[in-house]
Structure formats: C-alpha cells, structure tokens
Design a protein that fits this description.
By secondary structure, the protein is mainly α. The chain has a domain of about 90 residues. The chain has a two-stranded antiparallel ribbon. Helix 1 runs antiparallel to helix 2 and helix 2 runs antiparallel to helix 3. The chain is elongated.
Amino acid sequence: MWFVVWVGLAVLIGYYYKQKGLNSVLGFLLSLFASPLIAFIVGALLSPESRVFEKSKKCPQCAEFVKAGAKICRFCNYEFKEEEMKPERPLTEEEWLEQEMRKKKQKKLNLFFFGISVLGTIIAFLLIWAFINRQVESTKKTDMMRGRIEEKR
C-alpha cells in the first residue's frame, strides 16, 4: 500500500517538473529513489523558465529556443532578420500584470506540491512504521504461542 502512495507522489513530482520545464523523468526517478520531499525542494530551487526566456529567443520557423545573439537557428538554419536581432522592447503594463499573475499562480502551485510532498512523506513513514510494528507484534504473539505450547508438553 505504501509503495503505491510513494509511486503516486513520484508521478506528481514528475508532472511538477514537467510544468516547470524540467526533465520530468529525472523528477520522477529522484522522487522515487530519494524522497518526494527532496525531489520537490530540488525542483523548486531550479528555475529553467527564467533562464530560457531571458537569454534566448524563439525561432519563428521551428519554435525552438536559441541564444539571444544567434543569427542562424541551430535547429532549422533559419536566418534571423536584422529587426529580429534587436533587443526586446520593455513590457507593457498589461504584459507585466499577466507575468505577475503567472508568478503568483506558480507560487501557489509550488506550495501545493510542497504540501503534497510533505504529506506523502509523512504518510509513507507512518505506513512503514505500522508495517514494522505489526511484524514485531506478530513475532511477539508467535513467541508467546510457542512458549505456551512448549509449557503444555
């Protein structure tokens, strides 16, 4: 049972990594073998979206991101025009508000996944503890039963 919960949390962490633009398989495996809490913290500390958008531009032909100073797309060999080489214009108020709303939404999502990770880790430890405790109790009962059987002989 606890293994199913652990794998479920690992899948959620993989999805969280995908939403952040990170490698979802890496997030899943890190969550599965280390801990969902550790994987979430690592994912929260990494921020590829800001790096990608600040230092790159999107190719209009193939939609891949290339370095901001690139004259030719490395994926499709599209040659950027001179006006495409100019630095980006400042954000309008509407664009800035939209960007701030996106950041707030991302923070709420991060907090949600953090809570899920903590809760999942606690549940996993409780299930492990219960399983170990049940085994100990079962062993004690078995020993007591053997003692009674041996006493009757």
